[in-house]
Design a protein that fits this description.
27% helix; Aminopeptidase; 5-stranded antiparallel sheet; Immunoglobulin-like; elongated; 337 residues; 6-stranded mixed sheet; alpha+beta
Length: 337
């Protein structure tokens, strides 16, 4: 589906509505709609398949009407691609085709609600096998973290490709070294919907269980130590503040992804932690992103599991189901920036 630049002309009598302007522009498989208001008004945003609804806390227009769409480029694309309907305290934007995702954010000066609708046929996921090449990660009892993460990442990739529901990419498909910044850059360049970084944990004790992290500048002492290990550098707590690119929404959506994965893999083993932490590999992504520690290579029981092909297959299946659930029930239905 190709959208050309469109302009929604909304002519209202002066002071008859708090809506000042509404226009849109589209590129390839997405369209962005700008809704400018004369003043700030509280609202609720919802999206369902072909319809985006914005329900305002008070009346924004005295009349119900269809907002006519005009193509300022005089292209072959007509206003039948989507239309907007005003209903006193609600605006509904109805599309001809199902969108794959709908998102919004707000600009305060002037007050605008920016709405994005994407029409990708498939969602894009990026799977990151932690470490690699000159960086082996944790080594214990002849096992290397980089080998385990690559095995699991490739199997998850195969599982997701097999269903045909997703476009999936690996940050690495062999034993090569990638900078942490390169991994998130791959995710952003692909405009992916979710980023999953696979790792294996270690401990001086007999700790066991899964740990799942999302990027946050609020973290426990333990989470900070794990981030230091995976980042491969010693950093002071104050230095983590340089990652000031995280929006509240991205943190919330990443936490939701972490909880969704935890809800499925806990059938195989205990989920010890779901926490925020200052991970380099997550800091640069603009999509929901998590780092999954698959267990403790230093624990004999878990080390045995990580060598078991059947266990790995079950683990991969659980993670795939969780990703599919997250995409369908959260990203598809909700907004994100």
């Amino acid at each position: 589906m190709i959208f050309h630049a469109l302009f929604l002309l909304f002519l209202l009598r002066e002071n008859s509505s708090i809506i000042k302007d509404i226009k849109s522009i589209g590129f390839e498989d997405y369209v962005r709609i700008y809704l400018e208001l004369k003043e700030k008004v509280d609202f609720n945003f919802s999206a369902d398949k072909k319809t985006i609804s914005i329900l305002f806390s008070r009346e924004v227009s005295p009349t119900k009407k269809i907002i006519q769409i005009k193509d300022i480029r005089k292209s072959k694309i007509t206003n039948s691609d989507f239309q907007a309907e005003l209903q006193k305290n609600k605006i509904e934007i109805k599309f001809k085709n199902n969108f794959s995702v709908a998102r919004y954010f707000v600009i305060p000066f002037p007050y605008k609600i920016i709405i994005d609708a994407g029409f990708k046929e498939k969602e894009i996921e990026v799977i990151d096998a932690g470490h690699g090449g000159k960086d082996p990660g944790t080594i214990f009892a002849g096992m290397r973290e980089k080998d385990i993460t690559l095995l699991v990442a490739k199997k998850l990739y195969e599982e997701m490709k097999k269903t045909g529901k997703f476009d999936v990419f690996l940050t690495r498909d062999k034993d090569v070294f990638l900078e942490l910044e390169e991994r998130s850059a791959i995710a952003n360049a692909l405009e992916c919907d979710a980023f999953i970084s696979i790792h294996v944990n270690s401990s001086k004790s007999q700790a066991k269980g899964f740990e799942i992290y999302y990027f946050s500048q609020k973290f426990s002492e333990y989470a900070f130590k794990i981030a230091q290990k995976e980042n491969g550098v010693k950093m002071g707590k104050d230095e983590s503040i340089v990652f000031n690119i995280s929006s509240d929404f991205r943190e919330d959506s990443s936490k939701k992804l972490a909880k969704t994965i935890a809800g499925h893999i806990n059938k195989l083993n205990t989920v010890r932690r779901i926490e925020g932490a200052p991970f380099y590999v997550l800091a640069g992504t603009f999509c929901p992103s998590v780092l999954v520690e698959l267990g403790f290579i230093t624990n004999p029981e878990e080390r045995k599991k990580l060598k078991d092909k059947n266990y790995i297959s079950q683990l991969v299946e659980k993670i795939y189901i969780a990703i599919e659930e997250f995409i369908n029930s959260y990203l598809y239905q909700n907004s994100y920036l």
